[in-house]
Design a protein that fits this description.
The protein has helices at residues 2-63, 66-71, 97-111, 119-125, 132-147; strands spanning 117-118, 151-153, 158-161. By secondary structure, the protein is mainly alpha-helical. It folds into two domains: 1-73; 78-171, Arc Repressor Mutant, subunit A. The longest helix has 62 residues, at 2-63.
Length: 175
């Protein structure tokens, strides 16, 4: 009998050691999780602060009068940068160069008497081709420009030139 009890005690001891190891690992992982959550919070706050600063900058830019606008230089847009909401007096040059091309091309087509275009037609006109990736890239940019008032989205797939002020919670710049 003593040998059976000895075996049970050995198994119990091994189980206790395993439980303690798992507890230590759980405490360590809780610390890692807490650090990751803090980092995530910092990054979310940084993103919100950036959006607020860019929105304030865009609002300040739109408040500049015509005479001041001639003297003030608008910073050069960066590819992939924020698309600010359109407002009266805000030049298309605040958009990234790849985003500037879409409204410009649609305005030219509209002056030529052509109607709204699909993302695929826009991609072809811009010389990007018809690959799925390029068409989706153009569709994404055109939708973002339409959400911010730089274009008019006629249907879910058709875009045309035109500007409209954007107000409300959707007016915050998107990336």
């Amino acid at each position: 009998m003593a040998s059976v009890l000895g075996m049970l005690e050995e198994r119990e001891t091994a189980a206790r050691v395993r439980v303690e190891g798992l507890r230590e690992e759980a405490v360590r992982m809780a610390g890692v999780l807490e650090a990751a959550e803090i980092e995530l919070d910092r990054r979310v706050i940084a993103g919100e602060e950036l959006v607020e600063a860019l929105a304030a900058s865009a609002a300040k830019t739109t408040a500049v009068t015509g005479a001041e606008a001639e003297q003030e230089t608008v910073p050069a847009p960066v590819p992939g940068s924020i698309v600010p909401p359109w407002s009266e007096g805000l030049p298309v040059t605040v958009l990234a160069p790849d985003c500037q091309r879409i409204p410009g091309m649609l305005e030219e087509r509209q002056r030529a008497g052509q109607g709204p275009l699909t993302a695929e037609e826009i991609a072809v006109d811009l010389g990007l081709g018809t690959t799925a990736a390029k068409v989706e890239e153009v569709r994404s940019k055109a939708r973002r420009l339409a959400e911010r008032g730089w274009l008019v989205q006629e249907t879910s797939e058709m875009f045309s030139a035109g500007r409209r002020p954007v107000a409300g919670p959707d007016a915050a710049p998107s990336v």
